[in-house]
UniProtKB/TrEMBL annotation:
Gene3D superfamilies for the chain: 3.40.50.2300
One GO MF term attached to the UniProt entry: DNA binding
Domain HTH luxR-type: 144-214
SUPFAM superfamilies: C-terminal effector domain of the bipartite response regulators, CheY-like
Residue ranges of domain Response regulatory in the record: 2-122
UniProt entry keywords in alphabetical sequence: DNA-binding, Phosphoprotein, Transcription, Transcription regulation
A single BP term in Gene Ontology: phosphorelay signal transduction system
Protein's UniProt name: Response regulator transcription factor
Keyword field contains Isomerase: no
Residues annotated with 4-aspartylphosphate modification: 52
Amino acid sequence: MRVVVADDAALFREGVARLLTDAGFEVTGKVGDAQALLELVRADPPDVVIVDIRMPPGFTTEGLDAARELRETHPGVGVLVLSAHVEPHYALRLLDSDARGAGYLLKERVTDLGELADAVRRVAAGGLVIDPGVVAQLVGRKRVDDPLEALSEREREVLSVMAEGRSNQGICERLFLSPKTVEAYVGSVFTKLGLHQGPDDNRRVLAVLAYLRR
């Protein structure tokens, strides 16, 4: 699998590239700004782009903007945006109603090679990846007449893992539950929140995120 890494910090960029190489990925490009990233992808599209949310020259949302542009111009290229901070509004900007092959991960997760490799593979396969820290903030925020209060503690756990972009099998593995038990919890969560499960895992995740962002 071919991956491009974009980050203005050379040491971080080289570190991520080394981790990916050790995990069996082919790093085909390393760049330090969003414009160079766009030009590189146009010339030789990879399977996945990993990009810092803040890039030169303004260090605001250049990386995020580049990721969103690539989703439009190169829909077959997965994009994984990295951030140093939990910023749910940026994560949600990356994911719209047609989102596929996109993810938002905190930079601190990159030190876990297994988690990084898993995120890259899921994005490359067209899945969605949301950092657990973002999900926790969305689930944990207080709202007037909060419908989440109707969920049991286990149902909240299932909802949180689901919102990260995990399939039912992924929920089974994370929470050590059987497939039938997970199916029951997922059905209960959607019933209590008045949501439709959708035809695929991405639709299910987008429905949950749309609900949590309200």
